[in-house]
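Entry 14. Ran structure prediction on the chain below.
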Amino acid sequence: MAQPFSAPRMFFTFFKTAFRNLLRNRRHAMLNIAGLGLALAACLIVFLVLEFEYSHNRHLKNYDRLSQVVTRDKDSEGEHFTGGVPFPMIQHLRLDFPEQKFGQFMQNYGTQVTVRNPRRLMPEGNKFIESTGVFYADPELAELFEIKFLLGSAADLKGVQAVALSRKTAERYFGDWKDAAGNFINFDNAKTDLKVMAIFEDLPDNCDFPFQILASYTGFEANSNGWPLTDWGSNTSNHQVFTLLPPTADVSKINTQLAGFERKHNTDNKNTTRVHFLHPMAQVHFDPRFPTTGDHQITPSALYTLASIGLLILLMACINYVNLSTALAVTRSKEVGVRKVLGGTRSQVRLQVFAETLLLVGLAMSLGMVIAWLALPYVKTVMVVQSPLHLFTPLSLLYILLITLFTTALAGLYPAFVMGSFRPVEAIKNKISTGKVGSISLRRVLVVVQFSFSQIFIIATIIAVSQMEFIRNADLGFQKDAVLLLHGSAENKNLAAFKNELLTRTDVKSVALCFDAPSSDNSWQTNFAFDNTEDRDFSVATKFGDEDYLKTFGMKLVAGRMYAKTDTVREFLVNETFLKKVGVKDPQQAIGKMVRLGGQPFRPICGVVADFVPQSLKSEIAPVVLFTNKKYSGMTAVKLSGSNLGRSKDEIRKIWDKYFPDNVFHEEFLDESIESFYANEKRISTMYKVYAVLAIFISCLGLYGLISYMVVQKTKEVGIRKILGASVQSLVYLFSKEFTFLILIAFLLAGPTAWYFMNIWLEEFAYRVEIGPGVFLIAILVSGLIAGITVGYKSLQAARANPIKSLRTE
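Output, structure tokens:
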């Protein structure tokens, strides 16, 4: 009887033998390593994305006790949510909830910052456009968000002219953050400069609040420029309030009090339907009802989908390993027989298989880590994550270890069970039949599952691409091409002269001074009354533009006329949806009807404009009122001829510098601005493409595994058929016909599944494509073509084999 090995020596022998077997069957080993490597790389990237998303805001020590005070309102159109609260609310919160700590900020987007008398001029000059804007914050907010000050403290924000900069921002302005203290900066060419009183540490990337500039909230109140600081009726998502709850706080009790808070303090409107409640910090990153100030949000369902995709890709690769390993099991029967005759136990054979699997998975993981490392810089093009991801962290290393062991167990369990069950006499005589290494039906099921997954990805990709093409070519109700948008100040006295000089250019068709474009991220809603009646039970969106607004954006009047040239509000344009909502069927009948916005006087409707998309195609067209108001004309829209847009933009920049030497030339083209609305959807579309290619590749490996198995099973049959005169074409058909059937079964499973989930995704869009039969026809044709190439290659190889050699092998 053979002497037992010591455990270390035994495992060394296992891995040495495993290495030899991998070299002996290097072709199959390379296929397995390639498939598993790609799948593990995909899983690793998915894990890094999930880790990053779930880590948002967790750097805060009081993460579990921080909440945002948010707003829900109701009208005839349904519920409306916003993260903003009325300006006078916080002073009453502090009185009614003395045990809680409250902080607030007011965010101004697109602020121009001018550095006064810098000690050294930076490459960008001394003027900067801050896309995330300026946060006017009180000292309490800095304490709630645990801002770490390198210089100064939160108390410095009490000063009216005080400002604090992040370390990165201070270095961008002054070169060295230590040089920033005591210097002055200016916002939007205001009359008063602000003094840099404090510098704070940069916030991490996984924070939904990109505080770069914290200015004094007291300073904002002192120079509010018309913001309704005492008005309960107005609300903006730019003004947000946060609270730190006591450790023993009863959240349900606080929400009950907040539900009636506004009815208690809003003495002008005791019947308001607006209620407030706490929104925990743990939900801030995942709740699209309350957009954050960060670069993105993501829903839990999207994360579950992403995790499921990663798991499915890994499962497909493990199925390939099972198919390829069991296809080789017959050729290794003599090896197993010799092991058992020499005293090897069933457990040792199975450990040998696991050792081979572990070695192969380890090599695949090494390849996967290299692929993931190379792919990480491009993740932002296919995922919503725009921040750098780090591959080697303690948590990711633990995940690599666990996923390696999990994959080894998942891929190696079935082959180990099969090979451990060989009988030594049959094995050593090479009489192990293919029926003893598992059922061909099982492998068919596995291949059907694989191709179902790949066809789901193909269908999803086609639908996502079709939806993005639909968005790109949809009629928005205005012309978006060749319109240059220039951001400036509505208070600048040179705007009219600037417009007039632009109109003298041959490449400029029209110019409008406005607040924003017809489609934008802005949503300025207000209550209104129509035809001298009381306020309606829904709100309207407002757009501000001068008399050339419709001409510049190519919008159409369906009745009446454009309002006259004026600096103040005198008359209104309304869209067709407005008329539908108020019950007017004939646009001509609306002319002369009176409309009141908010608490303003009634004014007449002078025209009706054809419906246009005021935000994105995700939302239904809202009722809109357009009018002119010089106070809100901070954007200049320039319609160009389109012959040479780059040259026109450069020449317009020179005219801009002539009239606005103190303002940065901050421009964008309208079509690019609109395209940014769908940045996340474009990434999702790209992600589907990547995973579809990956799933198809892995599925082809699975097909290769199954056809390899069938070739082994039918070796004798093929030899006899060839001796009896069978042609190569008939033998290829012998193998191919079954796979055509398997692909059709996979399609019957994948079609309804993909249709269901993509319909859910399309529900995010108010205007979307219809999922027609063409989508499914393309998917089945693509799958059939790819599978045909894979199966045809291996089938042709088997059909051309020497029949004498095949019969002798059997």
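Confidence is low (pLDDT under 50) at residues 434-438. Will compare against last week's run tomorrow.
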